[in-house]
């Protein structure tokens, strides 16, 4: 026999040792093997895959020491059997195919015998319970019978024998279809009787299964001779599928892949309760325990005392009670914990089983929902379209999943290499079955309860994400080591250290409190964190910093000279424009040019024409009040505009009185009359009356309009006598403003013109009010001329109006003298604006096309 | 006991005089009283102008005394004002020296400023399309060009259609319409301001 590798340290040990000689870890499982099948089948009678498995498994399968068998094992064993008995209650209306399947199930489980083979138990009988002794005796007896009962030809093609078995059972099903299931199974047991000792009443049904499996091999070998070649190939491929359960489905034909999938799924599905699993799976699951547990013998009466609903819970309770069946290395506290655990385990298992049931109940619903939403997805392995297959193949397919179902009964202590052979790969998820040191029948149920949550979880994971592979973290420790983990609650209730100490979170002592730490706590100090003073700058931050530095540098370097250049260009442009304008005006004035023709009569404005007509109608001895209300800066335009009118008035013999609402008005009046009318003696002799400045704005105008004598109380020194101006000519007859023949306002401000119109004009009573205004005030003053009745009788606007007025009077004055300069100035101004405007437009368009460059330059 | 009678009295005087003068436009009653009030207002405005001149002189004298950077300009202002005031007092407004000062200093200075303004406006018009290139700038420059072309003969040549049609249309119709709108707005604003003062809502006189 080969050496046993220690699951803890991995060292090789002689097969006879129970404890590792290196690390003292247990090498052999504690659970006794209830192997009832012959172990010593000839190698040549077995298939290759069975032989290979046998070579690998036999050395590791060790009987459980008798002294380690505890009482709870009896209850557990009893609990497991009623569970199976419960599932064996077959309704009477089962279909025919289910009967065939149930009949074929124990036969196909035949290879399991090879897995469960273990050396006979020899020296520990005195400590084992009675039922275990009976099991061992029966195993020994069956070992001898099986040696003689197995023909050499049974080790032929496995699939051929299966085919023969199917054919036989189809015929048998036709005969026994009217009989109850119990009768059929009883007949199977009857066939098994010769292979079993008559006194063995405990596991006779298992013996029947073993004989049935042997028959299966024989019949399969016979059918191989009768089957065609393609079926032989099918049998070969099926055997390969059995030998290589982890082979991906895509490497085999579709229908065979479905068979393999169904087989693997059948292995996984036993964890689900029959009533909550899918229908097809429930039927398959019901068939297996039914055929196994049907022949319950009276030897199991103590076990039957436990009710069936509690059976599965009791199996789960084995997981909780497993620490109690450890070896002599069991610590002292463990028996105490065991006693309390036995009391509470039943309730805990029941609660856990309820959770499992809830999960299993949701699983088929979820799978149905996925199938409904995605009909194109691969179906479950059990949903193979049987309509296109022959009947025998359909039956074969139905019986095929039960073949690998023996896997849960593999030896508990399996090396890592061997465990891969017992791993089954479903469509998308690979599930590794954890070896356990429990009996085969118990390991199956343990697998059911222990892996139930994990299987459900992995099934959900496989539906959600096909690429997820299950975690195999628990494989680091064998199950029996895991089961050594004590119940923390029980320990903490009795041990003060366990209550106060820190709880271990990893390793074999995980969950324990009060364990001595690997290093004293005083050593567990940490160094103060070191903070680097070096600035951790990324490459992107360096780039940004460089850009920012460049921006700052550009701000401080080049702005000033470029601004100077721009200012210099503007100054040059401004000087150029000024020079052109001055030259255009200065040259005609200096040359006294009169080359430009005066405006034609057709272009004379109507207000100017009316002003002229009004003045022209006056006869001699008229008094005119002229208001000089303009700024000295506009005296050039205003004097030119007023010169022709005043000249015309003087020609008409008007006596002039001047007044102003501006402080500079009196001086402007004197300057304007002196400079524009030097040809009139009336002006040079200063016969006109300057009423000066009246303060108060509109109020002063209103007061002047109501009572001019009181508004302007001016006394003039005439000779040696100081006299009032109102007593001197031409103001002797003037008491109110409407006593004047004409009132003319010379102004550049439309507001001043509006004040005269609003405050004075209503009090004139027919005396005409005329305006001599600047060109800039025309738009705001002209509406008063266009009213009806007219508030303003005539308007002379700027140089153009004066030139027109001169044209009407026929006398050249300042307007004509400035007409050439005015024409040249207008022409140059128009040219400058046009040329500069187009140049600016082009520059603006070009600058908009290159905005970034101009911004950088600024 | 301190009673602040300044505010009520000033408010009563302002509102009363305003209502009385306003009523004089509609009801010709008490013309002498209205004329007296207006004459008093003119005297007050004249005195205010005189007080302004005194205040201006004191400010610039203070700057000369403090020796600020603009003390030279303040000194020139004080000197010019004193000379003009004295010569005008001695010779009157029509005197030779006051007319000479006005005709040879004030009028040329202000006229030069207007000439500089003309050059600045021409330069601003040239730079307008560079500084602010949008629809309104283009309309402004184009309108100014049309007015200039129609205001007189360009190099002795009178542009017929622009001078007799385009320019009058722009200055008398378009500009006249805008001017009337402005005048209406001014009139409504003046009425509203007057009513607020008469009702005491605005008290520019204090109180």
Per-chain topology:
The complex is a heterodimer of chains A (858) and B (207).
Chain A: E1 4-5, E2 12-13, H1 48-57, H2 71-87, H3 96-108, H4 112-116, H5 130-149, H6 158-176, H7 181-192, H8 204-226, H9 229-243, H10 254-268, H11 279-293, H12 301-304, H13 311-321, H14 333-373, H15 391-399, H16 416-419, E3 424-425, E4 430-431, H17 440-450, H18 452-464, H19 479-483, H20 488-494, H21 496-500, H22 539-557, H23 559-591, H24 606-616, E5 622-629, H25 635-651, E6 654-660, H26 665-676, H27 681-684, E7 689-693, H28 698-706, H29 708-711, E8 715-718, E9 721-724, E10 742-747, H30 750-760, E11 769-773, H31 778-786, E12 794-797, H32 798-809, H33 814-817, H34 819-849, H35 851-857
Parallel strand pairs in A: 5-6, 5-10, 6-7, 10-11, 11-12
Antiparallel strand pairs in A: 1-2, 3-4, 8-9
Helix pairs in contact in A: 2-11, 2-13, 3-6, 3-11, 6-8, 6-9, 6-15, 7-8, 13-14, 13-17, 14-18, 23-34, 25-26, 25-32, 28-30, 30-31
Chain B: H1 6-24, H2 31-66, H3 71-91, H4 96-131, H5 135-151, H6 160-199
Helix pairs in contact in B: 2-3, 3-4, 5-6
Spatial separation of the terminal alpha carbons of chain A: 96 Å
The helix-and-strand class of chain B reads mainly alpha
Looking at the chains present, what oligomeric state does this protein adopt? heterodimer
Strand order, largest beta sheet of chain A: 7-6-5-10-11-12
Q: How would you sum up the global shape of chain A?
A: rod-shaped
The succession of helices and strands of chain B, N to C, reads HHHHHH
Structural class of chain A: mainly alpha
Main sheet makeup of chain A: 6 strands, parallel
Structural descriptors:
heterodimer; A: about 850 residues; mainly alpha; Rossmann fold; 3 domains; six-stranded parallel β-sheet; two-stranded antiparallel ribbon; 35 helices; 12 strands; rod-shaped; B: about 210 residues; 6 helices
């Amino acid at each position: 026999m080969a050496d046993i590798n220690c699951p803890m340290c991995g060292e090789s040990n002689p097969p006879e040792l129970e404890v590792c000689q290196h690390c003292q870890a247990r090498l052999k499982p504690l659970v006794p093997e209830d192997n009832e099948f012959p172990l010593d089948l000839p190698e040549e009678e077995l298939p290759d895959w069975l032989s290979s498995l046998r070579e690998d498994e036999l050395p590791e399968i060790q009987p459980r020491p008798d002294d380690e068998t505890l009482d709870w094992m009896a209850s557990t064993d009893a609990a497991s059997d009623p569970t199976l008995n419960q599932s064996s209650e077959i309704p009477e209306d089962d279909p025919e195919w289910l009967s065939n399947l149930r009949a074929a199930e124990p036969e196909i489980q035949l290879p399991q015998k090879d897995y469960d083979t273990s050396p006979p138990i020899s020296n520990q009988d005195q400590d084992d319970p009675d039922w275990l002794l009976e099991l061992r005796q029966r195993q020994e007896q069956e070992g001898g019978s099986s040696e003689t009962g197995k023909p050499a030809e049974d080790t032929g093609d496995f699939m051929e024998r299966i085919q023969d078995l199917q054919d036989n059972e189809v015929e048998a099903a036709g005969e026994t279809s009217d009989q109850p299931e119990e009768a059929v199974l009883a007949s199977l047991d009857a066939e098994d009787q010769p292979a079993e000792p008559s006194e063995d009443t405990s596991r006779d049904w298992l013996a029947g299964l073993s004989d049935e499996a042997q028959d299966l091999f024989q019949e399969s070998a016979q059918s191989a001779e009768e089957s065609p070649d393609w079926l032989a190939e099918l049998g070969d491929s099926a055997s390969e599928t059995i030998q290589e359960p982890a082979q991906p489905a895509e490497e085999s034909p579709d229908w065979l892949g479905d068979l393999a999938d169904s087989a693997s799924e059948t292995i996984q599905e036993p964890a689900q309760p029959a009533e909550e699993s899918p229908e097809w799976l429930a039927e398959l699951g019901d068939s297996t325990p039914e055929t196994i547990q049907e022949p319950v013998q009276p030897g199991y009466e103590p076990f039957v005392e436990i009710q069936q609903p509690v059976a599965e819970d009791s199996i789960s309770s084995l997981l909780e009670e497993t620490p109690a069946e450890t070896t002599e290395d069991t610590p002292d506290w463990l028996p105490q914990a065991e006693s309390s655990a036995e009391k509470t385990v039943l309730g805990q298992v029941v609660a856990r089983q309820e959770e499992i049931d809830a999960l299993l109940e949701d699983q088929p619903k979820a799978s149905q929902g996925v199938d409904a939403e995605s009909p194109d997805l691969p179906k479950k392995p059990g949903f193979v379209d049987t309509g296109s297959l022959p009947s025998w193949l359909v039956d074969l397919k139905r019986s095929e999943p039960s073949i690998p179902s023996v896997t849960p009964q593999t030896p508990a202590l399996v090396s890592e290499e061997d465990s891969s052979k017992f791993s089954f790969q479903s469509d998308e998820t690979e599930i590794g079955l954890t070896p356990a040191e429990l009996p085969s029948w118990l390991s199956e149920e343990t697998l059911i309860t222990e892996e139930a949550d994990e299987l459900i979880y992995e099934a959900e994971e496989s539906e959600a994400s096909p690429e997820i592979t299950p975690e195999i973290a628990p494989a680091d420790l064998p199950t029996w080591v895991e089961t050594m983990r004590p119940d923390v609650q029980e320990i903490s209730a009795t041990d003060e250290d366990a209550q106060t100490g820190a709880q271990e979170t990893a390793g074999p002592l995980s969950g324990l409190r009060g364990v001595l730490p690997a290093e004293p706590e005083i050593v567990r100090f940490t160094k103060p964190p070191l903070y680097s003073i070096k600035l951790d700058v990324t490459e992107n931050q360096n780039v940004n910093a460089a850009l920012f530095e460049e921006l700052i540098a550009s701000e401080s370097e080049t702005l000033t000279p470029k601004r100077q250049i721009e200012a210099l260009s503007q100054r040059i442009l401004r000087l150029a424009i000024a020079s052109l304008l001055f030259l255009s005006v200065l040259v005609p004035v200096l040359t006294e040019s009169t080359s430009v023709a005066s405006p034609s009569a057709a272009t004379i404005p109507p207000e100017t024409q009316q002003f002229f007509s009004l003045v022209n109608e006056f006869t001699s001895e008229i008094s005119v009040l002229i208001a000089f209300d303009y700024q000295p800066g506009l005296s050039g335009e205003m004097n030119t505009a007023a010169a022709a009118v005043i000249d015309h008035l003087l020609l008409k013999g008007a006596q002039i009185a001047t007044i102003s609402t501006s402080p500079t008005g009196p001086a402007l009046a004197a300057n304007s009359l002196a400079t524009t009318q030097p040809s009139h003696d009336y002006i040079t002799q200063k016969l006109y009356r300057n009423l000066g400045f009246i303060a108060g704005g509109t109020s002063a105008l209103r007061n002047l309009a109501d009572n001019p004598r009181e508004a302007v109380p001016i006394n003039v020194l005439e000779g040696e006598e100081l006299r009032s101006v109102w007593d001197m000519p031409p103001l002797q007859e003037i008491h109110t403003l409407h006593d004047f023949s004409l009132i003319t306002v010379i102004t550049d401000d439309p507001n001043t013109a509006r004040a005269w119109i609003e405050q004075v004009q209503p009090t004139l009573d027919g005396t005409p009010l005329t305006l001599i205004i600047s060109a800039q005030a025309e738009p705001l003053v002209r509406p008063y001329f266009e009213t009806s009745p007219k508030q303003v009788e005539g308007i002379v606007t700027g140089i153009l109006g004066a030139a027109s007025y001169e044209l009407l009077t026929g006398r050249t004055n300042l307007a004509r003298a400035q007409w050439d300069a005015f024409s040249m100035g207008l022409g140059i101004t128009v040219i400058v604006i046009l040329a500069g405007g187009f140049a600016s437009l082009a520059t603006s368009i070009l600058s908009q096309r290159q905005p970034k460059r101009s911004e950088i330059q600024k | 006991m301190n009673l602040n009678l300044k505010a009520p009295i000033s408010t009563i005087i302002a509102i009363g005089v305003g209502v009385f003068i306003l009523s004089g436009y509609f009801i010709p009653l008490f013309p002498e009283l209205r004329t007296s009030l207006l004459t008093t207002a003119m005297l007050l405005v004249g005195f205010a102008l005189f007080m302004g001149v005194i205040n201006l002189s004191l400010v610039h004298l203070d700057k000369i005394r403090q020796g600020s950077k603009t003390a030279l300009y303040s000194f020139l202002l004080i000197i010019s004002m004193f000379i003009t005031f004295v010569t005008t007092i001695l010779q009157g407004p029509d005197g030779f020296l006051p007319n000479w000062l006005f005709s040879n200093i004030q009028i040329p200075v202000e006229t030069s400023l207007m000439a500089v303004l003309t050059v600045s406006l021409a330069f601003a018009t040239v730079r307008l399309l560079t500084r602010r290139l949008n629809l309104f700038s283009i309309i402004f420059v184009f309108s100014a060009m049309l007015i200039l072309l129609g205001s007189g003969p360009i190099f002795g040549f009178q542009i017929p259609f622009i001078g007799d049609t385009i320019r009058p249309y722009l200055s008398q119709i378009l500009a006249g319409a805008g001017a009337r709108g402005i005048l209406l707005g001014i009139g409504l604003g003046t009425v509203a301001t007057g009513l607020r003062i008469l009702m005491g809502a605005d008290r520019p006189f204090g109180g």
